[in-house]
Amino acid sequence: MEFTWTYQGDEQRKVRTFLQGHGVSHRMFSQMKHNGGAILANGQPVYTADYIKNGDQVTIVMPIEESNDLVVPDFHPLDIIFENEHWLVVDKPYGVTTVPGHADRLHTLVNQVKGHLIDEKAEDLVPHVVTRLDRDTSGLVLLAKHRFAHAVLDQQLQDHSVEKFYIAYVQGILPEDHGLIDEPIGRMDGDFIKRIVREDGKVSKTEYWVERRYQDDPDHPMTRVKVQLHTGRTHQIRVHFAHLGYPLVGDDLYGGPLWFGLKRQALHAYQMKFYDPFIEENRQLSTDLPADLLALKNL
């Protein structure tokens, strides 16, 4: 796969500096050097220490990634929200794990994406997960279709510039219309899965806006909230609302009530926004609530 940019500037610039400005990392330089890639200026091979001048076209040639045979393709159809040569955004149903692990190595979203890439006869068959969701959270998952796309989005994740919004239903009536939960999260001692708010945890920030308070049924008080993640810790939304005393409906792990026949936590990733460097514009993608959460909305 090739990517080309044109240098515009009055002074000469090193190839390495120019490419770093377009998201090419030290690791990618190493991969091109050792795995059959190339760097070209006006079609001719150059070194990263060489200089370019105004109007020069610089091209990187990325080596094709070898497929990992340990990731078995699953040809279950995907609910694709957006796809081009760089990105794949899918609407993940609850009950599907994002990446292979001890609980599931055959039918995860990554297995399904590999099956999709094989069907599409793609050159690169390595799915790069940019954003992931818990097994029983539904909604948008962003994957990069090659390592360069993954690298530039990973930097945005580290900068917290990828905007991710969720709809959640929590037990109880939240008193404030808007709030920012700024509490550190870490692993619970002696528990491989569960997380808690703890002083020595990692910085974690969750912002929310109340959309509706369900107060007519005294046996099932509930609040629907729009949630934005400003960090991306494991179980962050679930842990933060449970810490406030308003666990998510259906979230048995964190003390949420098993109301309305829900078989999972009432949490859906419905919107995301990120900067796409390949078109130099922001992309905003969204999806509707699934049937089980739509039923709660209409109560």
From TrEMBL:
PROSITE patterns in UniProt: PSI_RLU
Function statement? Responsible for synthesis of pseudouridine from uracil.
A Pfam family that this protein carries is PseudoU_synth_2
InterPro entries per the record? PsdUridine_synth_cat_dom_sf (IPR020103), PsdUridine_synth_RluA-like_CS (IPR006224), PsdUridine_synth_RluC/D (IPR006225), PsdUridine_synth_RsuA/RluA (IPR006145), RluA_PseudoU_synthase (IPR050188)
Keywords (alphabetical) are: Isomerase
Enzyme Commission no: 5.4.99.-
* Name assigned to this protein: Pseudouridine synthase
One GO MF annotation is: pseudouridine synthase activity
The family line of this record is: Belongs to the pseudouridine synthase RluA family.
Q: Which organism is it from?
A: Convivina intestini
